[in-house]
């Protein structure tokens, strides 16, 4: 049984611009436009925004100038065209229960406890418990008992469904019932797809000092990745450390 203290966030996908198609569109509409960003999502957001007024080749010349104006004017719909893919691991089921409340602009695929054997699962311990020896001992014993009960239930249920000819179905029937004793601390993995507007909303709500610590850690890590990945769309956020050592983020351009 492994105890996890910190989440991992992997950026696994980003957009690629089909430049030939954009060039064909510009030719067909007798327009001319070049942008200076090499980030696909930023290019596509600018292209989308300029469609609204057919302002190709007009006004603000750099991608940063254009998109910073979009953010400043709170024209958030333009940011919905920028999409990234992530994998979150080392997170608890408690975390994912909160995460999936973010619906608009998000897509999820999560590890299934009905199919995946949790007898070797890890568990995520809150910092406030881990830092206190007495509370840690209480938490660890509770986790151990739940884990042992799960393993015994899987074994007993496998015998109960021994007459089921499908091995896959036998395992699923056993695991889906036995998982009822697993705690919210059980580690899980979730694939997340989100657009820039949705990610900004997630950061504003979950990188806030009032957010739960685990989801705040993830929000801060997502923000750090996005500030490297797309500084124009996420560079306005500032990360600060609180007195307790945890971090928060804020921006003057809220609710874009």
Q: Total number of β-strand segments?
A: 8
**Ends distance:** 43 Å
Mean pLDDT comes to: 96
How large is the count of helical segments?
A: 10
What class would the helix/strand composition place it in? alpha+beta
H/E element sequence? EEHHHEHEEHHHEHHHEE
Question: Which keywords apply here?
Answer:
256 residues; alpha+beta; four-stranded antiparallel sheet; two-stranded parallel ribbon; 10 helices; 8 strands; 45% helix; 17% strand
What do you see in this structure?
This protein has 256 residues and is α+β, with helices and mostly antiparallel strands. Among the domains are: 15-80, no CATH class; 130-182, no CATH class. The protein is 45% helix and 17% strand. It has helices at 19-28, 40-51, 63-72, 93-99, 127-130, 133-160, 167-178, 196-206, 213-229, 231-234; strands at residues 3-4, 8-14, 83-92, 106-110, 123-124, 187-195, 238-241, 247-250. The strands form 3 sheets. A 4-stranded antiparallel beta sheet has the order 2-3-6-4. A two-stranded parallel sheet has the order 1-5. The longest helix is centred in the middle third of the chain and has 28 residues, at 133-160. The model has no long low-confidence stretch (mean pLDDT 96).
């Amino acid at each position: 049984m492994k105890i996890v203290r910190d989440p991992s966030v992997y950026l696994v996908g980003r957009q690629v611009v089909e430049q030939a198609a954009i060039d064909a569109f510009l030719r067909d509409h007798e327009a001319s436009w070049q942008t200076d960003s090499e980030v696909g999502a930023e290019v596509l957001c600018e292209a989308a925004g300029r469609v609204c007024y057919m302002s190709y080749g007009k006004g603000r010349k750099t991608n940063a100038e254009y998109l910073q104006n979009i953010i400043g004017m709170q024209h958030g719909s333009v940011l919905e065209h920028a999409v990234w893919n992530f994998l979150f691991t080392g997170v608890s089921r408690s975390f994912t229960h909160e995460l999936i409340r973010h619906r608009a602009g998000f897509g999820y695929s999560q590890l299934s406890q009905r199919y995946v054997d949790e007898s070797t699962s890890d568990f995520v311990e809150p910092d406030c418990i881990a830092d206190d020896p007495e509370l840690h001992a209480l938490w660890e014993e509770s986790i151990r008992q739940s884990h042992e009960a799960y393993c015994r239930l899987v074994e007993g249920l496998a015998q109960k469904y021994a007459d089921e000819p499908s091995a896959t179905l036998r395992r699923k029937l056993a695991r889906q019932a036995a998982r009822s004793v697993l705690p919210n601390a059980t580690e899980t993995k979730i694939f997340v797809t989100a657009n820039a507007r949705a990610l900004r909303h997630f950061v504003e709500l979950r990188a806030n000092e009032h957010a739960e610590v685990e989801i705040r850690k993830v929000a801060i890590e997502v923000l750090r990745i996005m500030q490297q990945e797309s500084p124009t769309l996420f560079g306005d956020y500032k990360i600060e450390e609180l007195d307790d050592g945890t971090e928060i983020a804020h921006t003057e351009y809220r609710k874009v």
